[in-house]
Amino acid sequence: MNMKKTAFITGATSGIGREIAREFAKHNIRLILCGRRQDRLDELQKELSSKTEVHTLNFDVRDKENVLKAVASLPENFKKIDILINNAGNAHGLDPIQTGNLDDWDAMLDINVKGLLYVSKAIIPQMVARESGHILNIGSTAGKEVYPNGNVYCASKHAVDALNQGMRMDLHAHGIRVGAINPGLVETEFSDVRFKGDSARAEKAYQGYQPLTPQDVAEIAYFVVSRPAHVNIADLIVMCTAQASNTILNKN
Ligand code: NDP
Ligand code: 8X3
C-alpha cells in the first residue's frame, strides 16, 4: 500500500506557503502547489521535483467556479488529498476604519475568508468519504487580538479562527483533524502586499527586532501534520521572542 501523503497548499508561491512546500518535500510528501503566479509555481515545481512529485494549480481563491474546476482537474495520482494547508491570504492596507478602502476590505474578506471556504468546500467531501484527512488553517495573532488600524484584516483572521473551531466540531466525527497555526510577525511579502509595493514602508515593519521566518512556521506545520492520527494540534500561537502581543510592535 502507498503510504505517501499528498498535501494541497494554497499560497505556495511565496512566504509561509512556499516554505511549507519545501519542508514537506524534504519529508517526501507529494505536493499540489497553488497560487496565481505561474512563473513562481513553475520555479518551485522545478526546485522540488527531485525530492517529490509536484503538481501545480493556478487559480484565484476568490473564483469559486475555478476553485472547483482546479480541484476536479487533478490527475489520478494527485486526486486523494490527505493534507489541506489553507494558507493563501494577505492584508491590504492599514488604515483606520473611517478612511478604509472598500476594495481593500473586499479583497481581505474575499480571499482570507471566502477563498478559504471555497477551497475547503472543494476538498472536504473526499476526506469525509474516506473518514480521514487533516486541515491546517493559517490564521494569525490578528485572529486572536485586534490592533489599531488592523480592523478588517483582524476581522478576517478572527473569522478564520471561528472557522477553524467550527470545522473541527463538524469534521472530527469523520476522523478529520482540523487545526490552526496563528503566527505573529513573519518576514515575507506580506507587508509588500499590505503597503501596495511601498517597499520602504514594508521593510520598516521588520526592522529593529528579529521577526519569525517562514521556515520557522513551516517546521511547525510539519510537526503538526506528522503527529499520529489520534493527535490533533487544535490551535497554536507562535510569535517571535521580541513580540509579546499584537499591540507592542509598531506596524507603521
Ligand atoms: P505572502 O504575501 O508572502 O504570500 C501570500 C500567498 O497567498 C502568495 O502565495 C499568494 O500567491 C497567495 N494569494 C494571495 N491572494 C491570493 C488569491 N486571491 N488567490 C490565490 N492565492 C492568493 O504572505 P505570507 O506568506 O506572510 O502569508 C501567508 C498566510 O499567512 C496568509 O494567510 C497571512 O494572512 C498569514 N499570516 C502572515 C503573517 C506574516 O506576518 N507574514 C503572520 C500571520 C499570518 P499569488 O499572489 O501567486 O496568488
Ligand atoms: C500577520 C501579522 O500582526 O501584521 O497576520 O497582523 S500582523
Automatic annotation (TrEMBL):
PROSITE patterns noted in UniProt: ADH_SHORT (PS00061)
SUPFAM superfamilies, alphabetized: NAD(P)-binding Rossmann-fold domains (SSF51735)
UniProt EC number: 1.1.1.381
Official protein name in the record: NADP-dependent 3-hydroxy acid dehydrogenase YdfG
One GO MF term: oxidoreductase activity, acting on the CH-OH group of donors, NAD or NADP as acceptor
Cited Pfam families: adh_short
Keyword Oxidoreductase on entry: yes
Gene assigned in the entry: ydfG
Source species of the chain: Kordia antarctica
Keywords: Oxidoreductase
Keyword Transmembrane: no
Alphabetical list of Gene3D superfamilies matching this protein: NAD(P)-binding Rossmann-like Domain (3.40.50.720)
Family: Belongs to the short-chain dehydrogenases/reductases (SDR) family.
